[in-house]
Amino acid sequence: MMFAILANRTYRHLFLAQIIALIGTGLATVALGLLAYDIAGANGGAVLGTAMAIKMVAYIGVAPVVGAYANRLPRRAFLVAMDLIRLVVALALPFVDQVWQVYVLIFVLQSASAGFTPTFQATIPDILPDEQEYTRALSLSRLAYDMESLTSPMLAAALLTIMNFHWLFAGTAVGFACSALLVVSVVLPRITAVPAKGGIYDKTTRGARIYLGTPRLRGLLAVTLAAAAASAMVIVNTAVLVRAGLGFGQSEVAITLAAFGGGSMLAALLLPRVLDRVADRTVMLAASAVLTLALGALAATWQFNAQPGYWYGLLAGWLVLGIAYSASVTPGGRLLRRSSNADDRPALFAAQFALSHVCWLLAYPLAGQIGAGWGMGAAFLAAAVLALAGTLLALVIWPVNDPEVIEHRHDDLPPDHPHLRQAHGEGVGHIFVLDDLHSRWPR
Question: Are the C-beta atoms of 302 and 376 separated by less than 8 Å?
């Protein structure tokens, strides 16, 4: 039963912290759009677009730096500090009246998120060392993200009927405060970090070098590119497709987005049982292929069916994309856990956080600019081509024979190597998780 892992008090409190912080972030997203319009008027869209670009830059640039040093800091104190920084920024946002102030605060806010999120994600495998339990935690996390995307806009709409949008930032601050209190309420596992050698460059790129040196994680990144192609099409162009293309209103936009979110939630509920029986590589590559085929089918049919009756076909397409999207990205945490030890995990999760957002940084403007310049049929086709590229790349670079563990020698490892410290004795034949970090050493 997926929800049985909530019996673990530490995980339950962290999961609640995640849900509350996500709802607060969702309220801030709605409020930020209204704030941009309040400051810039008709140019509000450009302001918001720049703010989203700043968010991506913060994620890509800050996460690796945090990942390099997070394993040497007390994790609970670090997570609480990141929540408090976000709380202060949320409280400051209602008082800004200049565009540059929005940009500065958004950079600070998203930099704190770039520190919090991968550190939080890297903590869960230490709390739930059993892979089946961890798989269920990943699915619950996916459900939390999907529920937030559905409920936050509705909650914001309800609150806006009784208050000014500036008060939504207060709700965001409350969310971060509750998150910090829940983190404080638990004791997190301690890790004894081995200081990384080299300068700042070596330390900050360590996670990315481990990541890109591991075949299964290169495959994960390629699958993430396919997932980004599909989700960018949904996020960027749903309103345009439904309103301008089919002539419907705001409620139909919400229903269409709900079809994608509902498909993602359905997959998240089913995935734990599927992953108990089917290899991660098989599930993720199959899902990536479905994303490609669904985008291709929508590209082929949109040009000839851009009329109100096609909305039901679009709903079906978004449902399939939601299912395949969730199936392609949710197992990623299992691969990261399998490819790291406790010392490397924060850096590796930070690398995944940064590198995956590079995929979205490519996919978002592709979906938006091609859709605006050449039409939705061309946007679907471009997304399908990008998804196909990711799928084929993953198929080539992710080995079919990808065992979780191998037997290998430790004779030539340096005395301070983490895998020797983990062993119960010196010698030959210890069994450890396979990753390319130590595959360089003789086996």
Answer: yes
